[in-house]
Amino acid sequence: MDGKYSGLKKIVLHIVLLMGVFISIFPFYWLIVMSTNKTSDILRFPPKLIVGSEFFTNITNVLQNVDFFQAFSNTVFVSTTSAVAILFFCSLAGFTFAKFQFPGKKILFSLLLVTMMVPSQLSFIPSYIMISKIGWVDSFQALIVPGLANAFGIFWIKQYAEEAIHDSLLDAGRLDGCNHLRLYWNIGLPILRPALAFLGIFTFIGSWNDYLWPLVVLNDAAKYTLQVTLSQLNGIYNTDYGLIMAGTLLATLPLIILFIFFSRQFISGIAAGAVKD
Amino acid sequence: MNAANTKTVTNDIQPITQPDSKGKLWREIYKNRTLYLFISPFYILFIIFGLFPIFFSLYLSFHKWSGLGEMEFIGLKQFSYLLSDTIFWQSVGNTFAIWFLSTLPMLFGALVIAFLLNTPLLKFKGFYRTAFFVTNVTSIVAVTIIFKSIFGNNFGLLNYLLTTIGLEPVEWLNSSFLVKVVIASMIVWRWTGYNAIIYLAGLQSIPNDLYEAAKIDGANLVQMFFHITIPLLRPIILFTVVMTTIGSMQIFTEPQVLLGNTGGVGGAGNTITLYMYKQAFVDRQFGYAAVVSWALFVIIALFSFINWKVVQKTGSK
Amino acid sequence: MFRKVFSLLLMVSLVFSLAACSGSSKTSSDGKDSDGKVTLTLWYWNRSLDDALLAKVKEQFPNVNLKAQKIDGADYKTKLQTTLASGSGAPDIVALNDWVTEFLPNSDQFVNLLDMGADELKNQYLEWKWNYALTPDKKTLIALPIDTGPTALFYREDLFKQAGLPTDPAEVSAQLSTWEDYIKAGEKLKAATGVKMFDSINRVFTQYLSQSDSAFFDEKDKFIGDSGNVKKAWDLAMEVHDKDLSANLVDGTEWNAAMNNGKIASFIGAVWTKKILKDAAPDTAGKWRIARAPGGDGNNGGSFLGITKSSKHAKEAYKVISWLMNPENQLQAYKTMDLFPSTPSVYDDPSMSSEEEFFGNQNTTEIFTKSAENVKPRYFGPKFSTVNTFFGDQLTNVANKKLDPDKAWKDVQKQVKKELSR
After folding, report:
1. Is the ipTM of this complex over 0.95?
2. Do the Cβ atoms of B57 and A181 come within 8 Å?
3. Label partner for B64 (CA 20 to 30 A): which of B110, B226, B246, C318?
4. Which of C102, C254, C397 sits opposite B152 (nearest CB)?
């Protein structure tokens, strides 16, 4: 139609987007630069801008100093379990809040809002006291279970369910004799899939990167998650930045790979799910 | 869809009517018992790990406690201390400043990116989407260390680049204003892509016919953006504004890793949560920390409410 | 299909959780393994203890199984606090940094080592260091000394030479024996080379104070920071600031880079700064020297090793920590980890001395041991860190030209008074 004109527009569009991409990606590049250099090169001025040759040295140091692979598998386990469990808990509750009425619904829901507005650091001590009373200190349950009561998760599912699941479908289901469980399982869940995918990945990432709570709760180094294990590399008096950055890179890479692998699915899934007829 | 059918079959689950006696209320509850069952797994955990800590901290706020030993009841003393605590009020100001510097650019940028990505026939969409979202994946600690080395006062990367084009280096972390810009930029960097994806989903659900009709009426891109896109996106925008507000008012890790527990030079980067953390775990004043966190709660609740009203109102045209 | 996957994943994760449930160690149990051994847990942060020594514990004490956990130093205190507050999950043995004085009011959380016979060990250690972990009534000792941080003057011999200042360590100590001399030398250096003598005014303040016989509180916990040593320390810092002799860099990447690029000519630092300097500024190797500091000897930092009250094996734990902290082992830790001993009997040991290339083949240990022996005992009190931070912050404000010195002084006094009132 507009031939050349729209071609120019397209190029400008790409340039603008690429500038944004550059801003997005640059810190990762910088991370790679730092993890491939010696600490003294990192601190040099003018700073060294290109990738160095210390990558293998730094990585080897990391692997020698901390039990990286154990921590890696711990983190995979904890994050996966958290993600799946949260999907279960939040979808059950979110679906119910979205599509059904019952006494006390408003109050129960507003309670959730309250907890989102209180910073989590303060609840460390009471949560820890709870955990130790149940005997869960130094366990994976302590990492997984408290996070399951995630208000954001319910919000997300509720909002999505309200729009995407039509009452008519539920009515049809009831006509067919579905009880509440079947309504959830056969009708609700499939429609919620994109929202679940998003929530799952988001929870996975959050759990993967969680640092302060696992540090406080875990005692046995064999149970450490990645972030805690890497923090062992921080000296009190001095910091080997090359080492730390290399460790950070190792901890971040799996997430990025996972994300790139799944992003097509869940991003397009969200879009598909949001389309109304 | 036949609208008449929607509410006909509601045998076991009925809309709530005013219970005129307690008996009726209990019957309602009993009728919906499956529903309560469904939300109970969540709520049981919630009561233990969500509500209990909150009540505990409420209790704590009336006591003086160093984390060990006895809790000393001192009533409202710590609340009145809070009112005259200049460091606290400074942290409130800082938190709002950071909110302002980050939320508006972030959400606006996210909208623009989403809009651009929504262009039909745009190639490499998948690549762009991934590239923008991936910023959310790294741990905040790692990101802060990276930004610290970019924005370093004397030897940071950015200052180096400035000197190569003949400008003076800037003391990013010492200036009261600029340090907030640095923190805000970390937040913007991290969350813009995330919000853009959410907006993108919303955009893709807006029917094209609306745009076609507007084009025929002679509207340009900007007009379409403000008169079609934004109003229809309102619920989603509302959601992101509230979520972002709640999140950015609780910023903690970025200033802590960037500047240390006191929020840097002149406390310019001290946020409310950082101040609370320092009171609790560095100064060992857990009672006072609880007071601070309740003050934060009130602030967030009020502010989110105001935000919500504002977005709602501007949309209703 | 999706739901099948979902339910499968759910089942798998439930199974895993149950498995993890049964597998979790019963940390609150007796701790006695089936072969009659005693298990002791120990918490420390990276480089606070010699890892090789910890490994040797099982040879020395065959009936003890020592599980040592490394925890990130920055959040160590948070973790310790939280655990102690909950009353369970605490380790048997715990390393404590110089914030140990904050825990003295809660000395009931720790085993009183005097009850375990620690008095007989007292003479092995530097007295001022020993007193640190002692309650004011001298009746409870909550931890044994690990390492110390005696201070000395680090200076760039080549830059001093350029400025016409003395270069031999003994001469430097003689001619720069007071702070006034030090500041004058700084002016001379600046005029001749443009390089700054001091890295930060915060350091001036801290080091002067650490050389003094008192800090912010007297032995009755009364605040004395509005006059005396604290005021003198402040005034010195202000003088350095007024004369623009400080590079205004506190430790961190900026400081490291400045050291490496020769922007700072000297600083008074603790012995553990040697390693930091070496890592930070390899390009300046061979150019640094150590001398007794202007103003006298002081101490920065150093940690302690204690036993928690909740430990079920206090006797065994005591045997382990008193062995770990005996003079021979402290000497060993110095050789491998640079942890400067708090046991003066090993100071003369030949293995402590060596010619250090980074310091132009000087034997720096001579200086640091003298310094360690001459540190004046000071009373810190439980509020030391909080108050110290206030002063530090205001000094930084002045250094960055945000506040004028008089206002900063008034502000910090106000802050402290307010803090102490609650």
Report:
1. no
2. no
3. B246
4. C254
Buried b (16+ CB within 10 A) or exposed e, B153-177: bbbbbbbbeeeeeeeebebbbbbbe
Q: Is residue B124 domain-shared with residue B248, that is, in the same domain?
A: yes
Residue range of the domain that includes B114: 86-142+174-315
Dihedral angle of Cα C16, C17, C21, C27, to the nearest 10 degrees: 100
The C-alpha angle C200, C206, C207, rounded to 5 degrees, equals: 90
Half-sphere exposure of C369 (CA within 13 A, CB side): 17
Q: How far apart are CA B308 and CA B312, in angstroms?
A: 6
Residue B244 lies in a domain: yes
Give the contacts of C359 (CB within 8 A, at least 6 positions apart): C274, C286, C288, C289, C290
- Please give the structure tokens belonging to residue C195: 């390089």
> Cα angle vertex C413, ends C408, C418, to 5°?
125
**What single-letter amino acid sits at A184?**
Y
CB B29 within 8 A of CB A102: yes
**Beta carbons of B51 and A175 less than 8 Å apart:** no
Cα A264 to Cα A79, B120, B204, C256: the distances in Å are 21, 17, 16, 44
B107: pLDDT confidence band, cut at 50, 70 and 90? very high
SS3 state at A22: helix
CATH class of A66-232: mainly alpha
Kind plus residue range of the DSSP H or E element containing C39: strand C38-44
Residue-level pLDDT at B54? 85
Residue in A45, A132, A228 nearest the CB of C261: A45
Long-range pairs for C273-277 at CB < 8 Å and ≥24 separation? Answer: C273/A237, C273/C154, C274/C338, C274/C356, C274/C358, C274/C359, C274/C364, C275/A237, C275/A238, C275/C338, C276/A237, C276/A238, C276/C251, C277/C154, C277/C358
Same domain (yes/no): B219, B311 = yes
CB distance from B234 to chain C under 8 Å? no
> Is B174 part of the contact surface with chain C (CB cutoff 8 Å)?
yes
Indicate the pLDDT class of residue C223, thresholds 50, 70 and 90. Answer: very high
Instruction: Encode pLDDT of B224-244 as tens digits.
Output: 778 887 788 887 888 888 888
Does B281 sit within 8 Å of C77, measured CB to CB?
Answer: yes
What's the CA gap between C274 and C254, in Å, rounded? 17
Asked if residue B111 is part of any domain, the answer here is yes
Give backbone dihedrals phi and psi of B10, rounded to 5 degrees, phi first.
Answer: -135, 55
Higher pLDDT, residue A122 or C310: C310
Choose the mutation target among C200, C249, C253, C413 for the interface with B, i.e. most B CBs under 10 Å. C253
Within this chain, do residues B243 and B119 fall inside the same structural domain, yes or no? yes
Q: Tell me how far apart the alpha carbons of residues B216 and B200 are, in angstroms, rounded to a whole number.
A: 24
Residue bearing the bigger pLDDT, C263 or A169 = C263
Written as six digits, the tokens of A138 are 């130094």
**Best of C3, C8, C9 to disrupt the A interface by mutation (most A CBs within 10 Å)?**
C9
Q: Given pLDDT bands bounded at 50, 70 and 90, which one contains residue B317?
A: very low
Assess whether B66 and B124 both reside in one domain: no
Please give the pLDDT value at position A46: 66
B:21-80 residues touching chain A, CB 8 A cutoff: 25, 28-29, 32, 34-36, 38-39, 41-43, 45-46, 48-54, 56-57, 67
What are A12's two structure tokens? 């400008």
Of C73, C85, C257, the CB nearest to A44: C257
Contact A267 B129 (CB under 8 A): yes
C279/A221 CB distance under 8 A: no
Task: Provide the CATH topology of domain C38-148+301-346.
Answer: D-Maltodextrin-Binding Protein; domain 2 (3.40.190)
Look at residue B15 in the predicted model and tell me its pLDDT.
54
Q: Establish whether the linkage from the previous residue to C327 is cis, with ω within 30° of 0.
A: no
Q: Does A134 touch chain C (CB under 8 A)?
A: no
